[in-house]
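Put briefly, the fold is written as integer tokens. The lines below illustrate.
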Amino acid sequence: MYLNGEEVNSINIHHALLDFLDFLKSKKCPVLVGHNIISYDIPILLKLLEEFGLLASFLQLICGCIDTLKLARKVFPKSQINNYKQTTLVKTFLGFEYDSHNALEDVKSLHRLFEEKLYSHCKDSDVFPFHVRKLESSFTEVIQEKKISKTVARRIANSGLGLKHLQLAFKRDPNVGVKSILQERGFRGKTIHAIKTILEDMCTEE
């Protein structure tokens, strides 16, 4: 590995992941913050964590994620900025430029942007599960069958639940299992009924 033409020390991916987990263990329920992470960084990291059998351990160490791209789009109107690239946001609202190809500088600039311009606008709804896309994809078949909408599936996934979680709750207690787990996350009436009907149909098909 090289930086500006000079060789730098590096370690293999497995060791890097283990070091990352050790770092997370030193924090109390950390939230991972990154720019456009839901579309870029998370899929890459998710794949590697699964490859090395570390995903379950990783998920137990974090409280969720915040994508500053999504947050910036909510905070800054289009009339104030040409685009929502991190370099543009930093230059426009912090007044400086940095080397976006340098990972450390990239992290430092995002930290300042988040702390000074975005943090005060954060709400609980801006925090999402690390594997939210994977959870959401578990509902693909029932969405295609028009049993629930993409919006409902996304809301359930954002609460940290996938179809397998709901199936397990249903098998444990067909009467109130699904109702309890969904109510804990703020879901009511129609959504609970729709999910319970889906699971009952799936059991009948088996």
Summary: Residues 179 and 192 are 6 Å apart (CA to CA).
